[in-house]
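hey can u run this one w/ iron/sulfur cluster bound, need the structure tokens asap thx
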Amino acid sequence: MPDGRHSDGPTEKCGVVGVSLDGRDAARPLYYALYALQHRGQESAGIVTHDGFQQHSHVEMGLVGDAFSADDLDGLKGPTGVGHVRYPTAGSVTSSCAQPFSVSFKSGSLGLSHNGNLVNADELREELAADGHAFTSDGDTEVIAHDLARNLLEADLIRAVKRTMNRIHGSYSLTITHDDTVLGVRDPLGNRPLCIGKLDDGYILASESAAIDVLNGELVRDVRPGELIVLEDEGAGFDSYQLVEHENSAHCFFEHVYFARPDSRIDEQLVYDVRRELGRKLWSESGVESDVVLPVPDSGRAFASGYVEAAQADGAEVAFAEGLMKNRYVGRTFIMPTQDARERAVRLKLNPIKDVIEGKTVTVIDDSIVRGTTSTQLIDLLREVGAKSVHMRIGSPAIIAPCYMGIDMASRKELIAAGRDTDEICEAIGADSLAYLSIDAVAEALKSSQSDLCLGCVTGKYPYDIEGESTDRDVISPEITEGANDPEIADSDD
Ligand code: SF4
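ok here u go:
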């Protein structure tokens, strides 16, 4: 994969961005911001802008650098716009599902970028189709666009968004253009990240703060769960509307463990710091003395440095070593459909350095195990080059259940930890020992209570109402009633 993650890990979802600027076109800042979010989606990239009179759109399959020419960017006029990088989580892998989704309704033009997954999209689609809405894709973003467009016929922008939020159920961080107004919305449980940044000449909304950094901007804060942010014209500021409030959040802990860039700040925490802390906790829970500690590049690196730091502080004789080299030019492996293709891809991607490993006891640190393909292959490779023993330490709890919130975790039957205990998994991957991090340790490292986290993939209990699955809370059901519950909306300007 372009960001160098290994083959059978969970797959990122999407990245969203939106800007309102004073007097210059939004296209190039959006383009650079999308570059910074490339790790969140490599299937397609797109930008929608508005010049005050009309909407402009350019959406292509492929990476950001391939999707736009200089002419394409020159044609995207206007100081406001939204952008998107996509890995398909709902809808098929075709250009009709690429985003931002742009469309003109009687209520004006809309451009929508969505990160997340609605769990009631089919129900809403049927209802909207019965009401005469014609769909051009099978993605859930179009469902949100049609619902919002319908609400905009009867209500002002803020109330229309509120009505749509009351009807859609699932995870979503959205950046939206409504004509030349840019909005950002985070779902009521804050499952997916979204933050606000200040630029020299405007404001930006982005999935991760790394997209603000690349524009030399400053992170202002995270968008709160259930909050709508409206960027003011000419990048003058932003207005905040707390449209839905829940007692607890359900932040995806895997953003910190795996998806987000280590240099991003999410929900007030630097991802790199969290990963190092997870590594320290991994040592304190299940540290094992060995000659060398190897991170699985690149995602295991911060965990391994925290692990070794804590081990050395305890007086253990362990050394950090880069014993696994990654071939950065191997293509994405998650699109390889068969287990055999994935296995070969692991061997192409990771090469052990014999001199570092031969005759040594080795601890390998990785962020997670999904199917177990990478771990099994890796342990084989390490033994082939002479490792005396191989101990696996994993910086997250065992993944026992799929994700319905927009992450490709594989199906339950593909998950190596579904229905197996740790000893059985250890045997299956061929390690001398295996240990996962506890859920308590994850919550502590995130400085969060467990009730404010989504832990669905490691507990099998989800924060949303999902058919056939159990939930870990009193789920507030969406209101599939047109025009329901128009709010008294307080504008709390920041
Ligand atoms: S189920 Fe797992 S990957 Fe999916 S949102 Fe929850 S914590 Fe994140």
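The chain has two domains: 14-246, 270-448. anyway lmk if its weird
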